[in-house]
TrEMBL record:
Alphabetized Pfam families for the sequence: Hydrolase
Organism this protein belongs to: Bombardia bombarda
Cytoplasm in keyword set: no
NCBIfam families reported for this sequence: HAD-SF-IA-v3 (TIGR01509)
CDD domains (alphabetical): HAD_BPGM-like
InterPro entries assigned: Beta-PGM-like, HAD-like_sf, HAD-SF_hydro_IA, HAD_sf, PGP-like_dom2
PANTHER family, alphabetized: 6-PHOSPHOGLUCONATE PHOSPHATASE (PTHR46193), HEXITOL PHOSPHATASE B (PTHR46193:SF18)
Keyword terms of this UniProt record: Carbohydrate metabolism, Magnesium, Metal-binding
Domain of life: Eukaryota
Name under which the protein is recorded: HAD-like domain-containing protein
Length: 241
């Protein structure tokens, strides 16, 4: 059995507390799209509502789901234009307000000092957004150029739970699934890693207290081999895996 030598981190709400900021900006844009397309929403989308329904998906994935749900369509050019606008809105919010997930910076610093593991980021979000997030909180130095985006790094943009971005990251890094472990906070992310054959550590730290028990069950059912509440548990979990 191959020794684990590579750690693949999701970004949003795993490394950086970005989901609430991103979904806040996203909701404003989706409500505008609904108005433009005459979609009869019972009530406008809020950031919280989008998080509940779409956590772990990128904006393009959300728009595909919403077009199916509300029976409207947009041209590829329209969709690409909205994707660019959403990136700009979210990046502005992240550059202003993003912070690290509690405890993760100390873990990254120790892992980098040990030099035992290759560290990379594997996200559904657009590369510009991921880079803005890790730049803002000072984490970019740990990953070099090894930042992979399902929205940007693939020939055809996709979103987790499609395993394509994990498969691409492993191929680019020259790693097998047996050599890797992933850290994910969402069902779609956990499914993506698991479907690529990677052991996934679930992380429920950023969820509200009343949601943590539910999300732990969701992540386990999606294939997480273990679920951690806090980054202080990570190195102990990694040693066991």
């Amino acid at each position: 059995m191959a020794k684990i030598n590579t750690i693949l981190f999701d970004c949003d709400n795993t490394l950086v507390l970005s989901e609430e900021l991103a979904f806040e900006g996203c909701a404003e844009l989706i409500n505008e799209i609904a108005a433009t397309k005459n979609v009869p929403l019972q009530e406008p989308f809020t950031g919280d509502k989008l998080i509940t329904e779409f956590v772990g998906q990128n904006f393009r994935g959300m728009m595909v789901s919403l077009q199916q749900r509300y029976s409207f369509s947009m041209t590829p050019d329209e969709l690409n234009d909205y994707v660019r606008r959403e990136e700009d809105v979210v990046i502005a919010k992240l550059k202003a307000k993003a912070t690290s997930c509690p405890g993760v910076d100390a873990v990254l610093e120790r892992l980098a000092a040990q030099k035992e593991y290759h560290l990379a980021v594997v996200s559904s979000s657009a590369l510009r957004r991921v880079q803005a997030s890790i730049d803002k909180v000072g984490q970019a130095k740990y990953f070099g150029g090894d930042v992979f985006s399902a929205a940007t790094s693939l020939p055809t943009p996709t979103s987790k739970p499609d395993p394509a971005i994990y498969l691409h990251a492993m191929k680019t890094l020259g790693k097998s699934a047996e050599e890797c472990v992933a850290v994910e906070d969402s069902k779609s992310g956990t499914l993506s890693g698991t479907r690529a054959g990677i052991k996934v550590i679930g992380y429920v730290g950023p969820y509200k207290d009343d949601e943590k028990v539910k999300m732990e069950k969701v992540l386990r059912e999606a294939g997480a081999v273990v679920v951690m509440q806090d980054w202080s548990e990570f190195e102990g979990i990694l040693a066991k895996i």
